Q: What sequence folds into this?
């Protein structure tokens, strides 16, 4: 029985790693595609590194704000100016799979924040918008009390997510 629990937890961590990859690229794509996200990112101090992590040893995703744009850093271990840590993989999954809204997860104390609270609130606003691009309408109506109006279609957002961030990663290699 204990072995089964270990496998379940491992599967959940693998799932969150995949979702973090999509979310990481989705935020970068939204920062290029949507002026609201772009304006939020421009308000962050230059060089700010933001990380979402799952405690104690779960996956993570990081971004760096530089010259008004956002750079996807992936799951590498980096020094962060803003660190949002979910207390466990079980606390992160409802948010990451669109079963709970970002604001609800914070209100339920499923995550801790270390760093500039103004940047943290800006990140929450960005994630609210990103959810509107990544999740289908039926999900966004259920989890977001007031879904952010998309400035582009889901298809356009997915194209930016897949092709634009892939070309950036190829250039960085």
A:
């Amino acid at each position: 029985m204990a072995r089964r629990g270990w496998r379940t937890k491992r599967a959940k961590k693998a799932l969150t790693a995949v979702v973090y990859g999509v979310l990481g690229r989705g935020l970068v794509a939204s920062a290029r595609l949507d002026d609201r996200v772009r304006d939020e990112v421009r308000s962050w101090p230059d060089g700010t590194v933001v990380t979402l992590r799952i405690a104690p040893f779960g996956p993570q995703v990081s971004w760096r704000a530089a010259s008004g744009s956002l750079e996807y850093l992936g799951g590498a271990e980096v020094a962060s100016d803003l660190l949002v840590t979910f207390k466990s993989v079980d606390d992160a999954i409802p948010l990451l799979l669109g079963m709970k809204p970002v604001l609800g997860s914070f209100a339920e104390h499923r995550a801790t924040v270390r760093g500039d609270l103004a940047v943290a609130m800006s990140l929450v606003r960005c994630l609210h918008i990103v959810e509107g691009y990544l999740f289908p309408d039926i999900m966004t109506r259920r989890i977001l009390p007031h879904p952010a109006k998309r400035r582009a279609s889901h298809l356009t957002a997915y194209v930016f997510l897949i092709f634009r961030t892939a070309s950036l990663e190829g250039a960085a290699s």
